[in-house]
Amino acid sequence: MLPPGHIAAGYLTAKILTSSLHYNLTATQVNELSLIGAVIGFLPDLDFFFAFAKIKRLRIDNELANHRKLFTHTPIFWLVLGLVIFFASSTDFGKVFGLVVWLSAWSHLILDSERGIMWLWPATKRFFPFTDSFYKKKYQLKYRQSESFFKYWFWVVLNGYMSLSGLVEILIIVLALIVLF
Ligand SMILES: [Zn+2]
């Protein structure tokens, strides 16, 4: 899934948490937590830059460097980080912040599960993909063969949206925009 979908899903997760939990939050704090949720929803994918640095190119090459093999794409990391913040906080804001860190990051990992993440790491490094047959191979081929930087990323984005996950992503973005406005 591409960044807009992850941002929207993280935002919606924070919205659900702030509206369904009985913590005392001001309207400003609810807005801050929604923004934090949106950022956290996307945050795990910053590890792409680590993968880019490793292959020394702004390209996706899962054979050489798969960013989903990094701890930043493991459920346990975000669960522990979120719970540490939750239990270390004495304020309502801090507690909800911990839950947003945990669950907005998990919204990212759930959406990434279409193509698989290491749900049971560190017990196993196995990926658990639903399927990757949603992806249109012809677009994948186009971006893999493309030498031009802009053409490459154009096909990556088009490939992302011309699939069932792309449709799901658009639905999440529309839902987030409805909630936002
Ligand atoms: Zn990701």
Structure description:
This protein has one domain (3-130, 165-180). The mean pLDDT is 89. The protein has helices spanning 3-20, 27-42, 48-55, 75-88, 92-112, 137-145, 149-161, 164-180. The protein is globular, with a radius of gyration of 17 Å. The longest helix is centred in the middle third of the chain and has 21 residues, at 92-112. α1 runs antiparallel to α2 and α1 packs antiparallel against α5 (92-112). The protein is mostly helical and 181 residues long. It has eight helices and no strands. Bound molecules: zinc ion (ZN). Zinc ion binds next to α5. Zinc ion binds at residues 44-45, 73, 108, 112. This is Membrane-bound metal-dependent hydrolase. The chain crosses the membrane at residues 33-55, 76-103, 152-180. InterPro entries: YdjM-like. Pfam families: YdjM. Keywords: Membrane, Transmembrane, Transmembrane helix.
